[in-house]
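Q: Convert this sequence to structure tokens.
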Amino acid sequence: MKTASLKKILVERFAINPEHVQPFATFQKELHMDSMDAIDLLLAINETFEIRIPEKTLETVHTVEEMLVCIQKHKQTLS
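A:
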């Protein structure tokens, strides 16, 4: 569910080819996202998953898989 939702955000909001959204794809190099895109992505994730991931997290999250782990951690803290 989380993987599909994150992929949907990347494809619909950032016009990324769905085939490029792979677990170890990096946001900056493979998905060609800049820092403003990263902030927009984070806002979309927070809204979609009803969580609050701080912007500082972007300093350590670089791949789709790392973001999925981050989402899962923040969802667990709300439970």
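Helices lie at 2-14, 35-49, 64-78.
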